[in-house]
Amino acid sequence: MRPGVRKRSYWQRRMWQHLVLALVSGALTTVIFYALPSRDPIFRLSMASAYVGLALLCMSLVIGPWHVLRHRPNPVSTDLRRDIGIWAGLLGLAHVIVGLQVHMRGKFWLYFLSSPDQPHVIPLRYNAFGIANYTGLGSTLILLLLLGLSNDRSLRALGTRRWKALQRWNYAGFALVVVHGVAYQLIEKRQLLFVGLFSVLGLLVVLLQLAGFRAMWTRTRRAPVAD
Questions:
Q1: Can you tell me the distance from the alpha carbon of 75 to that of 73, in angstroms, rounded to the nearest whole number?
Q2: In the chain, what are the domains?
Q3: Continuous segment of H or E residues that includes residue 59
Q4: 180, 167, 104: which is closest to 138 by C-alpha?
Q5: Secondary structure letter of residue 108 according to DSSP
Q6: pTM score of the predicted model
């Protein structure tokens, strides 16, 4: 196949991939939005974008271990995993923008600082609400880093080892998302359905990651040692 045809075929496949991810993301967001009993559209959009983004994030994190467990090649980066991660990032950013309007209605600084009319020793929120928001802020910063890495130019510029070292921050981002989600589950006393969905997604990632790590470790130990 000629280089020009191969390149055009590559971008056509990527465009179709993004189109499918956009349609699936939009459909799931719409379903969750209308399934929520709340009358507040901002809260419903915040929840819908959060859970769809979480599902995509979890999917991007289990592709690697799934390949390892099936004894399939697991390259440093694949287009599918990268594109799913991009849409997880876009939904995550949408959740942040919308979520900052839910409780304080635009006064986003009150998610992190105590209100001036409330007694406090230090201005930072250090209760469960503050922890939820600071972990959300941390995961957002990591999300921006990962979105910046999600292209071939960054991979070529940084090199495989450095790019992969930065990309591994997605595990820290996932941990912060879990803490953020658990805190809000407790603060808002979420419905059992959403608590269960959150728990299943989180456990799925943890179990598959552990299984993939164990498989890689076992495979490395059994590999013959060169003389």
A1: 6
A2: 3-112+119-210 (1.20.120)
A3: helix 41-69
A4: 180
A5: G
A6: 0.85
For the beta carbon of residue 56, count every other beta carbon within 10 angstroms: 24
Q: Which DSSP state fits 101?
A: T
Report CA 151 to chain centroid distance, whole Å.
Answer: 17
Of 129, 137, 213, 117, which Cα lies nearest the Cα of 177?
137
What is the number of H-type helices and E-type strands within the chain? Answer: 8, 0
Question: How far apart, in Å, are the Cα atoms of 178 and each of 85, 126, 147, 203, 214?
Answer: 17, 18, 19, 10, 23
Q: Give me Rg for the CA atoms of the chain.
A: 20
pLDDT at 21: 95
Q: Cα dist. 99→3, 5, 94, 122, 136 in Å?
A: 45, 44, 8, 25, 10
Q: What CA dihedral angle connects 106, 44, 135 and 180, to 10 degrees?
A: 150
Residue ranges of the chain with per-residue pLDDT less than 50: 226-227
- How is residue 74 annotated by DSSP? -
